Amino acid sequence: MLAYFYTGGLFMWPIFFLFILSFGVMLEKLCYFLIYELDATAKFKMRLATLINANKDEEAKILCQKYKNTIAKTTIFVLENVNFKLDTKSQIDYTIEEAINDKVLNLEKHNWILAMCASISPQLGLLGTITGMIRSFAGLSGGVNAPEVAMGISEALYTTAAGLIVAIPCLAILLMINKKIDYILNDLNRTIGLFSRRIS
Fold first, then answer.
1. What pLDDT score was predicted for residue 129?
2. pTM, 2 dp
3. Residue 1 three-state SS
């Protein structure tokens, strides 16, 4: 393993750092979606919608307290902070909007790290390619130095490959996470939107 880093040159180390960073974020996201969002079943969402439509707020709150997903947490927040009899429409709309925005920020937390790793890793690989080619051409000046040329080409190829190995999974995972977040937010807006019918 260390031989690859030695052959790949200086830029292999920041690429490796980005790999560790992105891998940590991927694990965090995987654990979050498996622990907190897996219980947002169709049965739960239908039951919650039925209770909200029937104005059974206390029962809806008790139901949501049994779940960990974003819809349940947001519903509890709205029910605890909104008085549909006394609050004005603007107050209710603001509270609902703040609740949704807070959950959006929570869902998207650390996504920027994956985006950064996906963007920077290939650029570092490209820099390694350039330095490797410079090294190869230096080996050709003043006579052919075959080992130096070979080392330069190896450095160029290793850093390019390492950058892409980090960037491609980051980009793929980021796209999947964003798709999952869109799905969660779509369900969240539909569910929380049921409260807006009371004030329309």
1. 86
2. 0.83
3. coil
